[in-house]
Amino acid sequence: MRSPLCVMENPSRLPAPRRWAAESSSCRDLEADDRSLPGAWRFPMLSGMKRFPLPTPARLAVLPLWLALAHAASGSERDDAFARTIDELFPKLVETRRHLHANPELSNEEENSATYVTKRLTELGLEVQTGVAKHGIVALLKGKAGASEHCVALRADMDALPITQLSSKPYRSRNPGVMHACGHDVHTTVALGVAEVLRNHQDQFSGTVKFLFQPAEEGMPIDFKDDWGAKQMVAEGAMENPRPAAIFALHCRPTITPKGADLATKRYLEAGQFSYTSGYDSANSDTFEVVIKGTMAHGSAPQRGVDAITVAAEAITALQTIRSRRTDTQQPLVLTIGTIRGGQRHNILADEVRFTGTVRTYDEAFRDSVRKMMTQILDGITAAHGATHILDYRTGYPSVYNDPKLVEATLPTLRRIAGQANVIESIPGMGGEDFSHFAKVSPGFYFRLGVANEANGILGEIHTPAFDVDEQCLKTGVAGMAAVICDFLDAVR
Fold it and tell me: What is the DSSP code (8-state) at residue 20?
């Protein structure tokens, strides 16, 4: 459905392509005479109010916030100033990313990364709070373009993965068995770059920007009992004093499946591009462990015992019928068994089998119903064989839900920076992401930053030993996020 409010920027006034300028209008159906009115506002659904100049504060007061944001002034002069600063900072951005990439740290072990980030933020003169959720950092930067009580937040995660890197690059991991295989080094670098750009241009925005540098996004072992990462940062007040009106984050992505394409379609998301979803972006991410208890017996006389392996095999097969036979085929669900262990010897009936897995859903009520169906299946199968079971089901990250109104409002900014054709709608995934905890406090938008370069062979997927990025993505990431933040603060001022 097309928005009732459209804005048209005069194409002749768009900045040069070097600055990732828009290639076309965000509203293609304006009449030709509208094109002579840069920034014209149009209400085709309101009789007698076909168009009027940029709205006064009184008119803005009657517009929904997201429409005001979507059609805020283009800020072309500000974009140009930011672009010049980003060009100057680019060698520093590369140096920062390579330092972080070479020194990865696992979840809840980000001590050196946090020290490095804190030093950089302190040198920029930001208000810095450390030790949030162990190694998390909260930093505040206030604009000087006028008084405003509004706040917007930017989140960047810092942790790495237990993966051995396959690379001969001079900036490859120096920490054996640990690698930035999910691009959190890029996320942290982009956030530091945004902080420096905005610090150098405080006269270009009003309000407060809150930077959240987060530990432990990748999660902790299944037996870890305490909260961590974003959830713990929220619990410790990271989203308060002040509470942001919105929160944004980006994530590296080398490939996407565009919306409307076959699910098997893979398209490279190149450096210089963004992708996004509106509504659900990632899944509820739950884990479980099942223990099947049987009775040991000699393998030559299985009738004298209860074979936990046979019971577990039947249970694993039956659990897959939740997806294939018991739920609406239109309701997204993944139920995967990842490990299975049991038995002691080839000629002894196993008395215990343990298997673990993950459940991915979007809807909260459906999430609960899947858990109940799992319990029902395990109860029935173990009872039929004279076995028992224990189901340890742990709810993990909630699904990330991109606020549709905030998405609609932000897309014109991303298109202005990257170009219309370089902002691509993609399908949501079934991965987990704890940005959702922040987005439950304030409306959120979590979008993807292209990092691939097909011509140069930079194509490795995230969470693999071959992952790397085209470092030109740092420019796009900083430019896009800085513009998004400033446009938002312009709209709410």
Answer: T
- Contact (Cβ atoms closer than 8 angstroms) between residue 275 and residue 425: yes
Q: How many CB atoms lie within 10 A of CB 329?
A: 8
Are the C-beta atoms of residues 8 and 37 closer than 8 Å to each other? yes
C-alpha distance from residue 434 to each of 110, 239, 399 (Å): 17, 14, 8
Q: Are 458 and 252 in contact (CB under 8 A)?
A: no
Buried b (16+ CB within 10 A) or exposed e, 6-38: bbbbeeeebbeeebbbbeebbbeebeeebeebb
In which residue ranges of the chain is CATH 3.30.70.360 found? 284-397
Intervals of CATH 3.40.630.10 along the chain: 76-282+401-492
| CATH class (in words) of the domain with range 76-282+401-492 | alpha beta
pLDDT by residue, tens only, the chain of 493 residues = 333 333 333 333 333 334 443 333 333 333 333 333 233 222 232 233 333 333 334 333 434 454 455 444 446 899 999 999 999 999 999 999 999 999 999 999 999 999 999 999 999 999 999 999 999 999 999 999 888 899 999 999 999 999 999 999 999 999 999 999 999 999 999 999 999 999 999 999 999 999 999 999 998 766 676 789 999 999 999 999 999 999 999 999 999 999 999 988 899 999 999 999 999 999 999 999 999 999 999 999 999 999 999 999 999 999 999 999 999 999 999 999 999 999 999 999 999 999 999 999 999 999 999 999 999 999 999 999 999 999 999 999 999 999 999 999 999 999 999 999 999 999 999 999 999 999 999 999 999 999 999 999 999 999 999 999 999 999 999 999 999 999 999 998 7
Element (H, E) at 139: strand 136-142
| CB distance 210 to 140 below 8 Å | yes
| Cβ atoms within 10 Å of 210's Cβ, excluding its own | 22
Interior angle at CA 159, CA 245 and CA 448, nearest 5: 55
Selected from 2.40.50.150, 3.30.70.360, 3.20.20.70, 3.40.20.10, the CATH number assigned to the domain covering 284-397 reads 3.30.70.360
**CB crowding 389-421: b at 16 or more within 10 Å, else e:** beeeeeebbbbbbbbebbbbbbbbbbbbbbbbe
Give me the active site residues, please.
157, 218
Calpha distance 415→422 (Å, rounded): 7
User: Are 450 and 163 spatial neighbours (Cβ–Cβ below 8 Å)?
Assistant: no
